[in-house]
Amino acid sequence: MSLNPPDIAELKAIVDWANLTQDVRELSLKFGDVELFVSRDQQQPASASAPAPVSAVAPVVATPAPAPVAVPAPVETAPLANSRTVPFSADALASDEVLIKAPMVGIFYAAPKPGAPNFVSVGDSVTPESVLCIVEVMKLMSNIEAQVEGTVVRILVENEQAVEFGQPLMVIKRDG
User: Fold this and answer.
1) Which of 8, 21, 49, 154 sits in a 20 to 30 Å window from 42, CA-based?
2) 126 - beta bridge partners?
3) What is the pLDDT of residues 141-159, one digit of tens each?
């Protein structure tokens, strides 16, 4: 069985994940000729309170470029009237609303598995421990919890959409 080497976005996602995970001190992965080593410096000055940055070395083997393919000119289409992805500005939040952001680069999953009901829908009440969604990075699934008690008022991303670190995912209106 041969594995395809990860692309640069996947390598970046691994490094971002390692930066967010305090339990990982070193990580070494090898995909054929591509090697990734991530190490967190364990010796910090007493005055340093932030975790040491993670460094990554990823020699990438040159591969032949694919043959050019004719691509048709883009066709302009009107935005879908029922599109659930809504442009959002954090400035639009009411004082009793909390913005839930992606803690890492990955893929957003609204349900625990394909065909299962979504974790939450607009109008659902949540507690701080309620799982709102999953963000997957390189087959590592991370539950994203509400952290507040309230009601889901907006879901800002589509199921299986790629998300960036800090990207708004949902808005919850606090109870009380």
Assistant:
1) 8
2) 150
3) 999 999 999 999 999 999 9
Type of residue at 150: G
CA distances from 85 to 82, 106, 120, 156, 168 (A): 9, 17, 16, 5, 11
C-beta of residue 41 within 8 angstroms of C-beta of residue 50: no
Measure the CA angle with vertex 160, ends 65 and 136; round to 5°.
Answer: 85
Question: Which residues have CB under 8 Å from 64's CB, separation 6+?
Answer: none
What is the rounded distance in angstroms from the CA atom of residue 61 to the CA atom of residue 127?
Answer: 48
3 neighbors 48 (Cβ within 8 angstroms): no
Q: Which residue has the tokens 């009411």?
A: 94
pTM: 0.52
